[in-house]
Amino acid sequence: MSIEAAKESLLRRIMEFYGDNLLSVIFYGAHLKGELNEIDVLVIIDEPYDPVKINRVADFIENIKEPVEREFGYFVAFELYVREEAENFHSSFMDVVKAYEVAYDREDYFQNLIRDMFNPERTIEYVKYISTIEYISLDEEESGGR
After folding, report:
1. For residue 46, is pLDDT > 90?
2. N or C of the chain: less Cβ packing under 10 Å?
3. Any bridge partners for residue 79, and if so which?
């Protein structure tokens, strides 16, 4: 069976499993160029239906990933985020934007997220988020932080 049929099945399973909680399904990576028989997919849901991320990941593997892999023979690599996680910078998004295909994007959620990510004003917010270095101006440092 074709990789396109596997992607259609994957999308259908994702949409059925998450229903109205689904925000975006994005296919990305080398399979879009025909270079790899692996499907990379980014899934963003609105709210965590389970507060424990590992449980959400296990649900994805059991209900979506493994059935598609068994039926079609393609390895499925995935990233699964809730809205709150997606709205904080993820370096993995840099790989996604190289080559991606929007399969589902409620109210252009992912497209707007990517646009924000490349907005210079927002970029500094992302850098602050991933940085553990506290910024102290020279004036504050010299005056002892007063």
Report:
1. yes
2. C
3. 42
Q: Can you read off the two tokens belonging to residue 59?
A: 């649900």
Give residue 37's identity as a one-letter amino acid code.
Answer: N
Neighbours of 108 (CB within 10 A): 12
pLDDT above 70 (res 106): yes
Cβ-contact 42, 96 below 8 angstroms: yes
Rounded-to-integer distance, Cα 120 and Cα 134, Å = 20
- Which stretches of the chain are assigned E, i.e. beta strand? 22-28, 38-45, 75-82, 100-105
Averaged pLDDT, 84-102:
84
pTM for this predicted structure: 0.81
7/25 Cα distance (integer angstroms): 11
Question: How many whole angstroms separate alpha carbon 122 and alpha carbon 21?
Answer: 26
Residue 41 dihedral angles phi and psi, to the nearest 5°: -140, 135
